[in-house]
Amino acid sequence: MQTTCFKWRTLGQLNHQIWANYQDETLTNAMKKVKLSHERLLKLIESHTYEEIITKKYYKWTKTSNLFSYFAANTVDHYNWAIKKCTIIANKIHESGV
Fold first, then answer.
1. Who contacts 73 (Cβ-Cβ below 8 Å, separation ≥6)?
2. Which of 6, 42, 66, 96 is the S-S candidate for 14 at Cβ 3.0 to 4.6 Å?
3. CA atoms lying within 13 Å on the CB side of residue 38
4. Among residues 96, 97, 79, which one has the least CA distance to residue 31?
5. Whole-angstrom Cα distance, residue 79 to residue 57?
């Protein structure tokens, strides 16, 4: 994957690039990657102390927020969405008999 710096205004370009990079991925491998990514993220969260996660401005790059806000905004909904998408695709494949 290209290491271009993306901003919020270029999020559509990032999504398209990710989509293009994974078009040939099998559903099985996609599900494995989602689960592996989730496991890695859980380990990352667990590697921080409660204070590091909850304290606002603990890390300078969080500005006025805390690490919890970043974890919450970028985990549960995204993983649930990915798993639902993969399930929908799997069901369509199963129904079509492919």
1. none
2. 6
3. 15
4. 79
5. 26
As a 3-state breakdown, the chain gives helix, strand, coil percent values, each rounded to 5, of 70, 0, 30
Neighbours of 67 (CB within 10 A): 19
| pLDDT tens-digit series, residues 35-49 | 898 899 889 999 999
Task: Give the residue ranges of the chain where pLDDT is below 70.
Answer: 1-4, 98
6 Rama class: left (phi>0) / alpha (psi -120 to 50) / beta: beta
The pTM of this model reads 0.63
CB 46 within 8 A of CB 57: no
Distances (CA, A) of 32 to 36, 37, 62, 75: 6, 8, 30, 16
Q: What are the tens digits of pLDDT across the range 1-13?
A: 455 677 878 888 8
Residue identified by tokens 């204070």 is: 51
